[in-house]
Amino acid sequence: MEFLSDIASLINSTLRISTPLVFAAMAGIFAERSGVIDFSLEGKMLMAAFVAAVGTYYLGNPWIGLLLAILACVSLSMLHGFASVTHKGDQVVSCVAINILIIGLTTALAAAWFGQGGLTPTLTEEQRFLEITLPFADSLRDVPVIGIIYSDILSGHFVFVYLAYISVPIVFWIVFKTSFGLRLRAVGENPSAVDTAGINVFAMRYKALAINGVLIAFAGAHLSTAMNANFFREMSAGRGYLALAAMIFGKWHPKTALIACLLFGFTDALQIRLQGVELPAIGEIPVQLIQAIPYVLTVILLAGFVGKAIAPNAIGQPYIKER
Amino acid sequence: MVSPILELININKSFGHVQANKNINLTINKGTIHGIIGENGAGKSTLMSIVFGLYQANSGTIKVNGNEINLKSPKDSIINGIGMVHQHFMLVENFTVLENVILGFEGETVFGEKLKKAKQDLQKLCEIYNFNIDLDATISDLSVGFRQRVEILKSLYRGAEILILDEPTGVLTPQEVDELFTILRSLREEGKTIVLITHKLIEIMDLTSEVSVMRQGEMVGHTKTQDTDKEKLAEMMVGRNVLLRVDKSESKKGEIVFKVSNLTVKDDLDVMRVKNVNLEIHSGEILGIAGVTGNGQTELLEALSGIRNVEGGSVELFGEKISDKDNFLNPRMLKEKGLAHVPEDRQRMGLVTDFKASENLIFGYHDQEPFSKSSILNHKKISEYSNKIMKEYDVRPNSPDLVTSNFSGGNQQKIILSRELNENPKVLLVGQPTRGVDIGAIEFIHQRLIHMRDRGAAILLASVELDEVLSLSDRIIVMFDGKIVGEKNNKNITDRELGLLMAGVTGE
User: Can you give the pTM of this predicted structure?
Assistant: First the structure.
């Protein structure tokens, strides 16, 4: 019985840990499917975390904090678009610039405004998002099987966790079942075909980037107003890059990207669970070794373990109409 | 009965300092096939891209059915019934035919009823014109000929009354060209107007009723096709008399110089591209390789010239084995043994386009006297040599210091030829020698190749231009799917026979 509840708590934390990755991977799918590389998921996530924490602290409502984070991230996406779509700059360089800018900016502003060494003030229980207990979770707890699945795994998450997993089928539906999705995929594969069909290539890419900004803001807000109660420096801790890797393993497809995110989330959950545990025959594994698991996995997967990932054909190339 | 459907009045268009179109006037009559002919860079494609709304003219007026229209994007021209089939197809390769056709004209936000209706409408269109296309096929699985039909279908579905085709036959086999022309004629019967852009005179004579000629951005003449002939048109295009046939004597075949046995080659994606190829070239002979692009010619030439590894088999030069799987000579060593290579993609492999002409002219010999001594370049000698050789090969303009990308395609090709031919190679490998080269320069390049042959060189010529293979080669082999599917003596062979071989139809 203890074994079962161990498994349940492992799955529970996998879902929670994967949440920002899922949002970020879905955000990445929109940008990259439209032909714009998005390395700046990391920077944008950090920006969203900062803006959500500060906005919530001053205005007292985490939803308003989220709204401000969305505004901030969409602005950053537009900046990326302005540099790399309108002015045809190098997309990777633009992203790197955004990432560096945001790391410095958030740390400096947090220090200047609050003087707590880069932390923002801790939000109160009323201010931040809290875990949601699903209806009847308590009364169903003792029912075998269903009790564990419903009460221990599905119930008791932050609102973002539910939103993240709902977003996956919605993204799938938009990308593959709507005319917007058809145009989005076309513009990342062959922008000339889109242009000659009478559709504005630049407008399509800006629209994709706007959606990208909205989605990534959820990831950041989850970090600073739900999972934690404040912002601290570099709190995104590489999740943007990890999500990008997940999106690539997932071959720019929402379903497989979700699986990759869950895999990363699972290894992370596992390494937390394994810390300090005595394993039979092996003994206690050093913490550093365990913490390296997700990264080792990334390298192994990146080395082509999951097969060759074929990127959208026109990715990274600014659209130039007249020579 | 004859009424103009499309009128262009005083169209001007510049790209930077280059004026691509100067005061163009053109009237196209309804229900005709109207040819627009001109050399590469004459401004034909630019003009038609303006009509299609892809580029915006600097000045001028465009009228459709007598009404002035304002074209800001392809959307405007599509609304006005103008469709265009581009030289490089505007298709999304991993989409289905259906998805490509409806792109931009989905008619609904979420796919449902309209998609079903579009499919039915398209099936009807396919039946009317006998297109024989599977709407659910993915573009990347289709042959070039079928992709072109998808482009035509796309324009028709979007309501095109005027269909512009930009160099439609460049990538097709002769049979596919026939099929295309049948489709175009039946479109004309249905009352559609067709504008055919081409540099091939024979297509103009075959298909059009009226023809307009462009030269250096200007419209230099309009005429009824029945009132003109190929020679007159060529003269209008180039501005001087041009020899359309290649004058050559019987070849004086010598010993076998170059021998390829059981050669197999893989491409970058590890796909077998050249399968068990055997061939021999004698001195004083041009061996032509005919075939549709992508049937292994590229990889064969790359392997023979030492820039791609050989998977199996061997290559012999004068009886000496120069390449097999384990021993592989690099291009430099091959060059020293007397092998020269004019690559198919001259801008990617033949030239450093950002270099000066003089630098490209000596590339590969730059470390030899008199061009350099103790690793230091002798600019005076290089400049003297460049001036001399550019005059000899008629490279225009004759300015060795000009950056290579500023020369036209034909003159860039002359720069490569002069470099490769100057050392009197014993074996010459040539890929697409006249791709993107204008008629005047084609004449010159062909003469040079014949000249080399007459001096005893063994020449391997790969070209997708069937006319070129037929007019230059002494013997012709046809490649299909990496294999040699036929070898013919170039005396009593028709392009029809070759075409069948190129399409993979074997057996007598």
Answer: 0.80
